[in-house]
Structure formats: C-alpha cells, structure tokens
Amino acid sequence: MSKPRTLYEKIWDAHVVARRDDGTCLIFIDRHLVHEVTSPQAFAGLAANGRRVRRPDLTLAVPDHNLPTTPRVDAAGHPIPIKDAESAAQLAALEANTQAFGVPYIGAHDVRQGIVHVVGPEQGFTLPGTTLVCGDSHTAAHGALGALAFGIGTSEVEHVLATQTLWLAPAKTMAVVVDGQLAAGVTAKDVILHIIGRIGTAGGTGHVIEFMGSTIRNMGMEERLTISNMAIEGGARAGLIAPDDVTFAYLRGRPMAPKGAAWDAAVRHWQSLPSDADAVFDKRVDIAAADIAPSVTWGTSPEDVVPITGHVPAPESFADPAKQDAARASLAYMGLNPGTAMQDIAIENIFIGSCTNSRIEDLRAAAAILRGRHKAANVRWAIVVPGSGLVKAAAEAEGLDRIFIEAGFEWREPGCSACLGMNPDKVPAGERCASTSNRNFVGRQGPGSRTHLLSPAMAAAAAVTGKLTDVRELL
Amino acid sequence: MQATRMISGRAIPWGAKNIDTDIIIPAKWLKTVSRDGLGKGAFESVRAVPGNIFDAAENQGAPILLAGDNFGCGSSREHAAWAMLDMGLQAVIAPSFSDIFSGNAFKNGVLAVTLDEAQIARLMAVAGDGATITIDLENQVVTSDRQDRFAFAIDPFRKMCLMQGLDEIALTLAEETAISAHEARQTHDAPWLVPSQI
Q: Which of A197, A330, B7, B117 has its CA 20 to 30 A from that of A41?
C-alpha cells in the first residue's frame, strides 16, 4: 500500500523530470500562458542566445494588462491606435514575438481575448492535473480546476519557453477547510477575503493551499476561480481545488479541451487526482461558513478585512507592534479614523472586473443588485470590465449591459484595467474605489488611490448608495 | 547572471514589513521591453515623501537593504529585482521573503538573506550608526565592523549558481534526455494533454 498523497503531491510526482540530491526537482510544465508585460525580456533573452520555444503547442499568448478598455475599432471597423506609446510598443512586441517564435496568439481584436486567467479556463486550455505557469501571480486562479498553477518571474518565463520545465523545491501543504452553508448575500469573494483575514498575507508562504470542505464543493467553477485566484494574497504561490463533476461539466466541449475518447481517458485520470482521505497536510485551518459575513477591506493589505457591519479598527487593537505601525500608516494613506463604521465610508469610484471577479456569474450578481436602480450622485466613475470578449458577448446576450448602462455604469472592453491601472483606467489620488479586484496596495489603482476590496454584489450596492453598504439590505 | 560572492557597504535600515512589489516598482514602470533603467521608479511612493530613508545622503549607493517580514509579496513582477539592482541594491536582509520574489532575486544575482528578527534589529541599530555590513556568500555569514557575525542558510544549488554566475537555462538544457523521455512518456500515457489548437 503506497503512502496516501495529497492532490498537490500527485500532480508533483507525475511531473518530475529529474531530481537533485537536495530534493529540488526539474518539473515539466504542461501549460504556459504568456501576456505582454512580463514576456518581452524573456523573448529577447531567447533571441540573444539563439534559443527557440521548445513547445509552442503548450503555450498560449494573450494581451491583457495594457489594453485600453475603450472601443478598439472605429465606426468603420478599423482598429483604433493605442495612444500610450509604451503600451503600444509592449503590445506590438507580444504580437511580433509570438509570430517570430510560433506561439499561438489571441490578439486584441479577437472575441476570445481577455484576461489570461479568464481565457485559460474558458478555452479549456487549463486542465485538471496539469502544471500551469504564467508570468503573473494570479495564475493561482487556475488551481480551481485542479491544476498546479503558479506565477513566475520573467527569468522563469524564459526558462519555461526554452526548456518547458522549471527547477522547483517541493512546497509544504496547507488545507483550508470551509464547511457549511453560506448565508444570503455572502459570496466566494467574501469567503476568500475572510480566509486571508484569518491567515494573513504570509499565512501560506512556502505552502500550496488546498481549499476543501462542503462550502467549496458546493461552489460552481466561477466561484472556485475567485477563491483560488487570491491564494497568493494569503502568501501561497498556488491554490488547489479537487476536480469533480462540477469541473468536468465546466470543461466538456471547451475548444482546447480533449474530445471524444480522449475526453473519457482524461476524465478517468482526473478522477484519480483528489487527495487521499488519509493524506497528511503540513497545516490545517478550519472555517465555518456561518461565520462569514459580506466582507470588505479597510487598509492597504488584503489581510485588512472586516465584516461590512464592522468598524475601522484602532491600530492599538493589534497585538504585534509592527502591525500597529502598519495599521497607522494604512489609516493615514486611506484617510480613515479608527472606530468609523465601514458603512459610513463614502465611495467615488466603482470597479467591477479583474481576474478575480469578471466572469459571467460575477456580472449577473452585480446586475441583480443594480436592476432598476441607479448609482448615487457622489459616485463619479463606475465601470464594468468583462473578463473576456466571450464574457462580454454572453452578458450582452442576457441584457446585462443594459442594466449596467441604465444604472450609470460604463460598459467596457475586456482586460485587466483598473485592477492595476497599467492602461488608462485609474482611480485619482485621494479618491476611494469599491473594487472587485484582488489588491488594495498603496498606489495599486493609481498613485494615491484608496481601494476597498469587496464582492461584485457589494460593489453594486456601494454604487447604489454611494457608500460601502451591506448588500443584504438591497437583496 | 553575474557572479556574486561578497557584498559589502552601507545597509539601509528600513525594517518595513509586508513590502509588496507594487511598492518596490509601481505598475506604470512595467511598460518596458527592457530590464534597464527601472531604478528611477524604485520605491517611488516611499521616495515621494521628503526626508525618506532611500534618499538620505548617507544611504546613497548603499548595496544592502534591511527589511521586515514577507518582503516582496504580491505581484510576480521581476521588475522589482531589476529596479533594485538599477538603484544599486544587491542584497536584502529580512526575516522572510515571498516565494516568488525570492526566486526572482536569485535569478538576477540579488541576495535575499534570511536572518531572525533579533539579528536584524541589531543590524538596523549598527547600520543606522554608519556600520559597514558584509555578506560573505561563500562562508554564509553576515558580519559588521561592530563585531557582529550571523550565519545564514542558503540552498546549495542556488549558492553555486550565484557564486559562479551560471546560466540556469544552459544547465537545464543539459537535461535534454530526461526532458525528452518525460515528453515521450506523456505522449504515450496521456496524449490528450496536448491541447487542440485554436
């Protein structure tokens, strides 16, 4: 009888190409997603050394970070040039590099274009049991399908392009077990914010987190993607969720997924992947779904989470003196005072989008709150940025775009947008944004911007009232 | 990668915790196709404050940064390591690092040295007093000219690559036989792993 193994250990073992004496392994990479920001120096490195892309067939490139979300073609259907010269150059470099190295490419004017982490699952490029990397830390998202997926730096992008492998030390394993039924108005985003609030931004460092328990099992694929996406905000390079019938139903028929007999063989393999019942994790955290409320951040770290019914904490309430200092700095940056009710915080900007929350179910959840309502007068800017052209088209087919536009939102083209403000979508200095993205770091949405992370439904609620709001009052 | 054996000089006694890579280099600086010139955007929001530690006269040209827990968390941008190198920082000493940053630092010959909090507190004090700090990679020890001597651990393979300035891709390409064997096994056992092309 072999030793019981976790899902992580099963994927790891199946991908070991070579092993060094110290335990470091050369791991084969099954899937590589490439975007314009972290790849140009990698392609330049290949060119400088006369190297080729070893497996273009396992690679897929999509531009997302820099693209403006304003219309991309004029009335006559001609492409509108990108004004920012540096962005234009980076986007042009991706197109040129993919051509030169023979890498499959979904361009800016293709309906399938979108955020890499939305496109991968949507196209069936992401599969259970695979190793998947991308030069982007939110690659953790793909773990929702049971892929061992993690962000890498540009030197590693070059290494994968050249060798289709990476040298990796085995990670520790951490089980985050969420059990029970979520209350009305509580979403996957609230669950992951609550988890990060519990474990802290370094809680998962050195670990791969497997999200388990009945609450996770009962989630659809898009909710699971939201959960695993933010594993990195808990310090874990990768998140994982065991593949099951939800996963298989989601993948069946997607363009790049296996078909026919190959599909059946794949499913048989995937069914062997879940962690064995008696597998041992290095760390375990248990969370009761009933304890989770609609949640929101108050500070400049994703661990700065409170229930929407809560208050801005006093720095002295933290035991760690360094955390007290960090909280003081956060409150000064955020322009907040201890003791303020979260629901008294006025909001000028709303961003619904990002690889965390830009899929069709996210847009449905926000639209359900906005239907027949309008954004408050003090909300200056409210945008919806679908995660891909296909999400956008699906939303339009359901009439969601009309609901958003009638509520005073702008309906945009897909991309990363105001999550990190590399394109023109930025939050002005000193203004607040209720944002469905993943990071509330200093200057993340633009220099001086103040971010409050929350769910799509909560973002819609904030738009309606002009302040952070408990969505349960609008259900 | 440049060979790195010994780094010696002033250390900037910053000590801040949970420094994310958005702080090290904000997104607007990532619109480049080069690794060079990012030093001017390094720690931009910190350096926007008059009297900040990075622009203090005594810290100009300092090769070492002293930081708190979880240094380099957040985004995977390797631009963080490039920006630090471009402003002259060749090493960070902290109690812990994010996994991705620590890999990116290594690939660029930036030493990410882990010491415990008490040792860093001592280095912060002597660095603030103008001490010269030395990181000796070969002997895996951080010393100061104030009689401090702290040993640190490092992965032996990383140490070898750093000391010899090895090209990791060239090393891996030498594993060609093993990589090809894995591919052949995969093609046989799981042919469905190759995606239908778009």
A: B7
Over the stretch A261-306, which tens digit does the pLDDT of each residue have?
999 999 999 999 999 999 999 999 999 999 999 999 999 999 999 9
Q: Whole-angstrom Cα distance, residue B42 to residue A242?
A: 40
Domains annotated on chain B, with CATH: 6-165 (3.20.19.10)
A interface test, pick of B28, B33, B66 with most A CB neighbours within 10 Å: B33
Comparing C-alpha atoms, which of B120, B103, B90 is closest to residue B157? B103
Mind telling me how many Å the CA of A227 is from chain B's nearest CA? Answer: 16
Contact criterion met (CB < 8 Å) for A26 and B192: no
Domains of chain A, first to last: 1-293 (3.30.499.10), 296-473 (3.30.499.10)
Give the separation between CA A324 and CA A308, rounded to whole angstroms.
22
> Measuring CA to CA, how many Å separate B153 from each of A213, B113, B114?
37, 8, 7
Q: For residues A70 and B14, what is the distance between their CA atoms, to the nearest angstrom?
A: 41
In degrees, rounded to 5, the angle at the alpha carbon of residue A131 between the alpha carbons of residues A126 and A135 is 80
Q: Say if CB A409 and CB A376 are below 8 A apart.
A: no
Q: Compute and round to an integer the Cα radius of gyration of chain B.
A: 19
Sole residue written with tokens 């490419």: A105
> What angle is formed at CA A96 by the lines to CA A91 and CA A99, rounded to 5 degrees?
130
Query: What does DSSP say about strands B6-9 and B133-136: parallel, antiparallel, or unpaired?
Result: antiparallel
B-chain CB neighbours of A263 within 8 Å are: 192
- A430 HSE (CA, 13 A, CB side): 0
Note the pLDDT tens digit of each residue in A221-269.
Answer: 999 999 999 999 999 999 999 999 999 999 999 999 999 999 999 999 9
Contacts of A23 (CB under 8 A, 6+ apart): A169, A170
HSE-CB for A230 with a 13 A CA cutoff: 32
